[in-house]
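quick one before i forget lol
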Amino acid sequence: MLFKGPINANDFGGFIVTLLLNYREIANNLNKYVIYLDNAPIHRAYTCINKLTLRINFLYGPPYTP
């Protein structure tokens, strides 16, 4: 997905939902997949709220990793 301008946690959440809707293999086998994220505030805001309800495995990189 492409976004013009800055994005927020809701935009990131929309991306995750779109990913799961378009790739049923991932949605049906969440325990087999890990989504690797950097430490951007939008990632933390979205995952703190929704990771328990979505059962997605999020893995964060170490701080200041390019």
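fyi The first helix runs from residue 9 to 22.
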